[in-house]
Amino acid sequence: MLKHRWFAFLVLGCCLAMMTGCWDAVELNRRAIVSGIGIDWMESKSQYLISFQTVVADEISGKAGRGATPTSVYQASGKTVIEAMRNTSRKVPRIISLAHTGLIVISDDVARNGIVDLFDYLDRDSDIRLTAEILVAGKGQRAEEVVAVLTPIGKITAFALAQKIDLTSRQLSENFRVEVDDVIRGMLTPGGGPIINGVIIEGSKEGAAKKSNLESAKSDGLAVISNLAVFKGGKLKGWMTKEESRGTVWIRDKMQKTPLHIKLENGQGEVAFDVMRSKTRIEAELQDPLQPIIRIFVEPNLSIREVNSSIDLRDPHTMKILEEAVNKEVVRILKKAVEKSKRLDSDILGFSHVIERTKPAVWRELKDRWDVIYPRIQVEYQVNSVVRNSQMRDRSFKHDIHIE
Amino acid sequence: MIGYRSRNRRKAPKKDSEELELSSKTRPSVISGNMEEQLARIRTESGDSPDIVIRRLKLGGKDNCAIVYLNGLSDPQMVNHFVMESLLHVNPDLLNKEDPEAMLKRIMEDGLAMGESRAMTEWNDIMLAILSGDTAILIEGSEKAIVAGTQGGEWRSVTEPTSQLVVRGPKDSFVESIATNISLIRRRMKSPDLWLETMKIGSVTHTHVAIMYVKGKADPEIVKEIKERIHGIKIEGILESAYIEEFIQDKTVTPFPTIYNTERPDDAAGKLLEGRIIVLVDGTPFVLVLPTVFVHFFQSPEDYAQRFDIAIVMRIVRYLCFIILILGPSVYIALTTFHYEMVPTLLLISLVAQREGVPFPAFVEAMLMEIVFEILREAGVRMPRAIGQTVSVVGALILGQAVVEAGLITPAMVIVVALTGIASFAIPAYNLSIAGRLIRFGFMVLSGMFGFYGLTLGLIVLVAHMNSLRSFGEPYLAPISPFRYKSQKDAVLRMPFKTLQSATLTASASGSGKQGNRSSTQQGIGAGSGTAEQNNGSERGDGGSNQHAVAPSAEGNRNSG
Amino acid sequence: MEKVRISPLQFFSLLVLFQFGTTLVVNLGLQAGKDSWIAMLIGMIMGLLLFSMNAFLYSLFPDKLPTVYYRILLGKYLGGFVGLSYGVFYLHTASRDVVDGGLLVMASAALKETPLLIVNLIMVMTVAYVLGKGIEVLARTALIFLAVVLIIGGFSLLVILFAGIVDLQRLLPVMGEGTGPILKSVVEKNIHFPFAELIVATVLMPALNQKKTGIKAGYLAILFCGVMLAQTSAITISVLGTNITERSVFPLLTMVGKANISEFIERTEILVVMVLIIGVFFKISLYYYAALMCTSELFKIPYKKLIYPYAVIILGNSMVLSRSYSEHLMKGSKYLYTVLPVFTIVIPAVLVILVMIRILVRRMKSKSKSRSEPNSNSSPAS
User: Fold this and answer.
1) Where in the sequence is the domain holding A140, given as residue range(s)?
2) Touching C: B residues 438-477, CB under 8 Å
3) Is the pLDDT at B28 greater than 90, yes or no?
4) What's the pLDDT score for residue B540?
5) Which residues does the UniProt record annotate as the domain Spore germination protein N-terminal (chain A) (predicted)?
6) Same domain as A278, residue A202
7) For chain A, what is the domain count?
8) Helix, strand, coil percent values for chain A (each to nearest 5)
9) Do B231 and B111 have their domain in common?
């Protein structure tokens, strides 16, 4: 009995081994690893033009390098993303593998036409991660140009760009990571839309895609993270300025570090601050259901970085004055962001969620008219900044020199 | 050893056939009073082997005595000094020349300066005693013979263990002599509760097999079971304890060893203290420990010589090594061919770069390298030490590098294979690491076909299989599953000694009346001749109760006697 | 009945893995939206009540398989029929879970092109092999894999928390839609899945070696699972938001895929896939075992002889169950509140009522008897 069973198992196992072969086994050298995707719109064919930035692995590591570029771009067009992807198989000798895609660049015109169907693919596909970063190429620039750029530091441009976003959101906080699911959630926000980081090429677009870009100390062209793009639903509505971006980041409570520049009253000079950390809280007051009031509380902690003034930083009173000035400045920045979002009539700041969280019942009433209410919504700001330190010195030496 | 034929078939023929009939069928099973006849029979039966020494003596003037011993197996010192000399110095007047039986008694009582001596009548026993190195004294007219314990001969002396090394800890190891081995354990445990039972297995080799256990700690049921299983063995020869192991292990198809073996006396003593039973086999330094659980194979005597926290880390490392050993290459295959999305991007790029131009699929690559590795190891193990070094250098360095440079195998695969190889060496028990290496191939096939899905199901089957194993009734994964909280202190972890109570394994401390028939024979006899009155091959079945609490060496007896 | 004994700890781990089984995998829609974790907790409480019915029946008939006491309570033919239908029910549910597992494997980026038949085949073969070793081996294996699952779960939880992707605000407002959707979800889904499914525990209970502790372990298993499942559901929603969670075929997988710590610890989904496979394995095993025990007891066939025929049935059934995943899910959620409650709620409840009546009748009788024979003391039931 036992022997029979083992025998049966053995035979079955052998059959399996022979039958299955390896349906799903794909050797690594049969894959083309895609690091970034660029999506453009071809007016002439009214099709998507998809550019895959693929990694040329042996140029990056390994001895077999031929001195070629570390990435190469393959393009194909199609009515849908999957069609374009399949069309590349005529051009690429290997399976386009999207699992490591770190970056997806959408061109400005695609974004203006709407990204809903695009994102259904990105959401649905089991290969592409939700963690892939989304960028919108700035006005007049094409996504294919962005993915074709070569970057001197960090050989793979897509990953380098993703790192740039990470870095700038930590250092400057005028951007923050926007991933596939963030965009989808943004599109689902009633009366709102996602905000997506922008990217532009500084310098020569042609030069940026050439290998010579890697060989000169001063690059011909560089892909640079730019300001936020504002969407309503699935469509691009407009671009923010630097300050509006910063305000948006602040209201979304993604603020990490940012420099602030304050001009003191009475011509006393200027002080530059660094926000070290900041906490934002949004509340909704719904006394009158038709006139919701949004209150934004911000508590930034600051550090003094540059003093071009002779004020006495040892004096607690001076600190008070400085904090007052900072409060005003922050409110100004916040206001700019809110105004912009009102002007574009897109609730990118998530006020609807705040109302829903506070009073679900009220929200159910407001829901249908939110588009109308939003531009007229009343917003109050309350900033309470604290200057924590002034680095290694207190007074500036300017305090002690007498310039007459 | 000298073949000792024609013993199984014969079943006690009548005593009256005393003539010099050499036909094997009619041979009597007891010795007769005719000394010449007996000596002739010894010669014939052993094929007139030159190493059987027959020395005739004259006691009281007559040519009436002969001593027989096997040159090389008996201790010449003992034979010369204690047998010959004392026999020659027996006062002739004391010997009753008329009655050979009385004379024999006299010699035994007054004449022999030997600790171990006794009178025997069974022909087979005497023959066996001679072949074991004892000296037989035959006296004309007596139907008994004296067998004096003169076993000796050359053994390898106690040296450092070769298979289970420790940095800190005792440096002695078992040798091929069972008496020495018993003494090594006895020396560590001076307790009357340490009981020893011996038996002889092998219809040709008559190998001494001894089981030792601590009475009151070992489960009497298991002791009984082991004895029954050992008695049930039907084989011509036992040359290594592995023979016994294969016969007495629980019958299951499995690559896993269900019986632990050790060549370290301290290890064996430790297992005895846990309430386990050890089986010693003459002629091999490897001692079996039963019942065995999986965690034993990850314990090293070193653990008890180091601080407990360090010991815990070392043990965890060993378990980790086992996991690496069985899963290393298969995880690599699954990751690279099925789940490339799992690999961190930069690592993936470097792997892709390595794979450029490599002709084999990852699965074949892994199989090839693992097989090459097995070949290298097999070559290295069997080689003399000096050449073994060369083999490993050639194999590991030159072959590995050449294979990578030729672009046949990816460097990453070489790393993985080398890692599993090293991991296999980190497991203290050799037989478990062999099992692991075997299983590894199964997992490679599974992951080559189904990726992590196959791997997960394979793991489930593996664990279920291990759970279904038993070693003498003890579940193989014992203290972990079924979970026994009390046994955790020295299973996967090694708690400080303060908390380590003497962990008995299953039995309660009550010794139970099982060994009631154990006679009070604390006779001082060496292990060798002590078994002379054991049943031999044909009558083995009914003799389970012949037990002796045996002191290990003749010296001890001399002191007591 | 094989003479095996399961310790309470093993019983606990079997039940926990059983409940994790497909519940972690399958997404039957989030009727309760953001509050599905509350629904899960309420479902757990109902599950405890249901389990107490089974435990009560067990306390009256320890050492007896359910098929035996069905016949005692319902009579030979009706009881036999009920027992048989339980067998069929278990068998069918086992094949449903095989499909769940197979689809999970196909969809979770592991085996996209391997035929479903093969994927299911090796799963069923594994289950059959382990069951061939006996329920005790299965129970002890469960203990080890519970540890594995908990380690992986703890690790994933840490990764998710440290990755900073949890936004608890996505769970707010609590009960924004009122209690209606929650209750609806509880009734339609959360009671049955997975808690009512613990009816299979009745088949295991006779093998318990410590009756009282075993039952306690059962309650604990439900509590533990309820909390863990509620927590998982809450975390999934707070990472992905309601919408994506609701649309995901395997929300847990998608959620874990979001975790990313400094570009190194990322893409830990495969570990979660392993957990899911383990869970599905135990779920199938228990249903399979329950089906085996029911029929082998009814027809007095040694259950080991039935293992392989049943494997073929389960495999065949799993292949013809449904044509697509959505059909499978749709049928599944219908099955949950049409067929399943008959077996998990109605029949046990009827039995409990029957037993109650019996006890009452006996008491009355014994009272009337005790007037005439004061010495006789009757034991309740059996």
Assistant:
1) 28-239
2) 450-454, 456-457, 460-461, 463-465, 467-468, 475, 477
3) no
4) 36
5) 24-197
6) no
7) 2
8) 40, 30, 30
9) no
The share of chain C scoring above pLDDT 90, in percent, equals: 20
CA Rg, chain A, in Å? 27
Q: Do A100 and B341 touch (CB under 8 A)?
A: yes
pLDDT band of B340, cuts 50, 70, 90: confident
B456 and C277 in contact by Cβ < 8 A? yes
* A43 within some domain: yes
Are C203 and C83 in contact by the 8 Å Cβ rule? The answer is no
| Whole-number pLDDT of residue B43 | 85
Q: Assess whether B317 and B431 both reside in one domain.
A: yes
Most confident of A9-13, A215-219, C50-54, C319-323: C50-54
Interface mutation target, options B339, B349, B358, chain A, most CBs of A under 10 Å:
B349
CA B110 to chain centre: 39
- Tell me which residue range forms the domain holding B322: 304-475
Q: How confident is the model at residue B93 (pLDDT cuts 50, 70, 90)?
A: low
Model's pTM, two decimal places?
A: 0.85
Partners of B468 on chain C (C-beta within 8 Å) are 133-134, 137
Regions in chain A scoring below 50 on pLDDT: none
Q: Which residue from A minimizes the CA distance to C171?
A: A357
Quote the Cα angle for B349-B352-B358, to 5°. Answer: 160
| B357 touches A: beta carbon within 8 Å | yes
Of A190, A208, A239, the one marking the end of a domain is A239
Q: Is C236 on the interface with A (CB under 8 A)?
A: no
Query: Can you give the pLDDT at residue B326?
Result: 92
The answer on pLDDT for B151 being more than 90 is no
Q: In the structure encoding, which two tokens stand for residue A273, read together?
A: 């601050």
Residue B332 contacts residue B410 (beta carbons within 8 Å) = no
Is residue B497 a part of any domain in this protein? no
Q: C172 touching A, CB under 8 A?
A: yes
Please say which residue of B148, B169, B197 terminates a domain: B148
Do A24 and C110 make contact, defined as CB atoms within 8 angstroms?
yes
Give alpha helix (H) positions in B91-239.
100-106, 123-131, 178-188, 220-231
Answer yes or no: do B468 and B517 share one domain.
Answer: no
User: CB contact, 8 Å: B353 with chain A?
Assistant: yes
* Domains in chain C, CATH or no CATH each: 8-372 (1.20.1740.10)
The CATH number of residue A285's host domain is 3.30.300.210
Mark residue A178 as left, alpha or beta (left: phi above 0; alpha: psi -120 to 50; beta: remaining): beta
Give the model's pLDDT for residue B545. 36
In terms of C-beta distances under 8 Å and separation of at least 24 residues, what long-range contacts does A70-76 make, across chains too?
A70/A150, A70/A155, A70/A156, A71/A35, A71/A150, A71/A155, A71/A156, A71/A157, A71/A158, A73/A38, A73/A144, A73/A147, A73/A148, A73/A209, A74/A32, A75/A49, A75/A50, A75/A51, A75/A144, A76/A49, A76/A50
> What is the predicted pLDDT for the residue at C164?
82
Please indicate whether residue A56 or residue C370 has the higher confidence score (pLDDT): A56
Please report the residues numbered 46 through 105 in chain A whose beta carbons come closer than 8 angstroms to any beta carbon of chain B.
55, 57-58, 60-62, 64, 97, 99-100, 102
